[in-house]
Every structure is written in C-alpha cells, then in structure tokens.
Amino acid sequence: MVIAKARAVDGPDKSFRAAEIERRDLDLHDVLIEIKFAGICHSDIHTAHGEWGAVNYPLVPGHEIAGIVTDVGSEVTKYKIGDRVGVGCMVDSCGECENCVKGEEQYCHKGNIPTYAGVDKYGEPTQGGYSSHIVVTEEFVVSIPDNIELDAAAPLLCAGITTFSPLNHWGAGPGKKIAVVGLGGLGHMAVKIAHAMGAEVTVLSQTLKKKEDGLQFGANNYYATSDPETFDKLAGTFDLIINTVSAKIDLNAYLSLLNLDGTMVNVGAPADPLSLNVMSLIGHRRSFAGSLIGGIRETQEMLEFCAEHNIAPEIEVIAADEIDEAYKRVLSSDVKYRFVIDNSTL
Q: Where do the TM regions start and end (predicted)?
C-alpha cells in the first residue's frame, strides 16, 4: 500500500487542505503511477461544490492525470517502469457489456468507475489526481507520446478527448463547417482539433475579447453571440456545433444555426437543466445530441493525433496551494486556458 500526498476538500463550501490517502496494493494487472501533473477541469469544481449530487467527502478531485509508471503488477504486459502514461475520467468498467466490448467503456451499461467520486470494484471510494500517486488497472492507462510534454498532456485526458470524440464521431473534416460555442478549456481544444482535421471552424463566444486567440488556434471566423445580428447572419450555416459551455444558453437560437441534417452536440455539463422547442429540430431535420469523453482506444488515438499535429492545450501551471484561487478564476473565466497542478508541490 502506498500513502499518497494529496489535496482534499471536506465539503461544498470548504477550502482544499493537505491530506494523505491510501492507494491499494498492486493487483495482478495494476499500474502504480507517480503523478507529475493534474489538470483542473470544470467537472472538478461542479463535483467539489456538490452541484451534481451527493458527494462522499473528503474528496480528492482530478481526472486529467499525467505521470510516470513506478511499479507494475506481476501480470502487466502493456507498461513498464519508467513509461510516460496518463489516466483520464474513468479507471474501470465491467469490460463485458456490449459497449465495453466495442471500446466505448464510457458508456458501460453497468456504469464506468470514475477516477474520483466513485466506488471501485473493491468497494472503496475513488480519489483522483490531486495526489502524488494513483493505482489503476493497465486497461485504463494510456501511453503519452514522447513529443507531448507531461504538463501539456494532462488536460488532453479530459478536455482533449471530450472534444476529439464528437468531432471524430460526427465526421469533422474537409468540407465541413464546424462551430464551437465558447473558447475556454474545452473550446480552445475543439478549435485546435477541428482545424487539424481540416474543417472550417467558427467560434461563437459572448464577446470578441478572445478573437485574436481563437484565430491563432485555427478558427476561420469568430462571432460575438451578444450581437443579435450574429444569429441572423449565420442562420442555417453549420454542419456541426460543439457546445462546450457549462451554463444555460438559448438552445433554440443555436439550433437555428444548423443546416439541413446538422447536429448540435453538448459536451459542457451545466448544473441546471436546458430546454428546447422541438420545432427547432423538426424544421430542418436537425439533431441535438450529447457526448461523454471517449473510450480508452479513442483516447489513445486522440493522443497520437495531437502528437502528429503538434496540438497541445494552452496551460498555466500552478502550485497545489493555489487550487482554491484557480477554482475562483475558472468560474470568472480568468484562465487561458487550462490550469495544471504541479504535483511536486503537494
């Protein structure tokens, strides 16, 4: 058993504190990872604040994990000590249902086991990447290509795969017009990836204050949604809209921007319900869909794609003592574009 240093929170209104947590002894197929960097995701904030339901505190969030293998179980075949690896939003699944067999473990019929705020197959609560070490079965560990720095790799394990998966599934590529709603941690990755796939990319943001960044990331166009003329000008334009924001928006207004058979995909997860008028869908055979991260195979594919196209998130590396302040800054959109914790500061 490894005693790991961590940062934990004891309630929805509590600050993070230094803590120690136990990591299980290695099972036959387990990998022990020394975590070098952990990204801060908006999901961490929702969960830590108890906005997605009851939480078993104390909680150690973090599902954007990059580190080094320091030990392996006796029957591990995929990894060895010294390998550069990552762990994303889930650490196990049933492995037997139709979706798991397809490599879509995120949609496991029995429910995947989340990296934190879940219960593992041993009946113990899962704790995440704001810690020095983690033990994960080798099937839920991915290899980080050598040309991706570990601090930049961390956000790819959630923000990267969360945007890559719907772009991949709905066929973003040459000849396709893609809109990305929001230019935050998820949105800036969606722009970079969609551009690398060869699509024409438009950013839809509340204001134009990040326009220069958006164009630098690969967007062809950038519009302010606070300008009512935007929705008139772009009506019926897009094949695919990726909505990355975790807040209530006027779905009907955005659906009007889709062309015939266009799809709007929600990857942001607001705490409050969204509503729409079905006439927004019926008129042009439009679809409204959701997408949840990606399977392990697709996550590895995403990492290889990012390595090939030199795609990395824009990050700000912080010390562990700065987590509370980072949460406040995320909520006020004061980050360009992803906070990453240097776990050596735990």
A: none
Q: According to the model, what pLDDT value does residue 272 have?
A: 78
Give the tens place of pLDDT for each residue, 249-261. 899 999 999 999 9
Residue 186: is its pLDDT beyond 90? Answer: yes
Helix (H, G, I), strand (E, B) or coil at 131: strand
Does residue 284 sit in the same domain as residue 178? yes
Residue 52 has pLDDT above 90, yes or no: no
Does residue 301 fall inside a structural domain? no
Could you give the CA distance from residue 162 to residue 302 in angstroms, rounded to a whole number? 10
Q: Are residues 63 and 136 in the same domain?
A: yes
Among all chains, which residue has been given the structure tokens 């240097």? 342
293, pLDDT greater than 90: yes
CATH assignment of the domain containing 117: 3.90.180.10
Q: Which domain covers residue 214, as residue numbers?
A: 160-290
Q: Which helix (H) or strand (E) holds 165?
A: helix 161-169
Quote the tokens at residue 204: 């839809």
How far apart (Å, rounded) are the C-alpha atoms in residues 51 and 35? Answer: 27
pLDDT at 270 over 80: no
pLDDT at 302 over 80: yes
SS3 243: strand
268 pLDDT tier (thresholds 50, 70, 90): confident
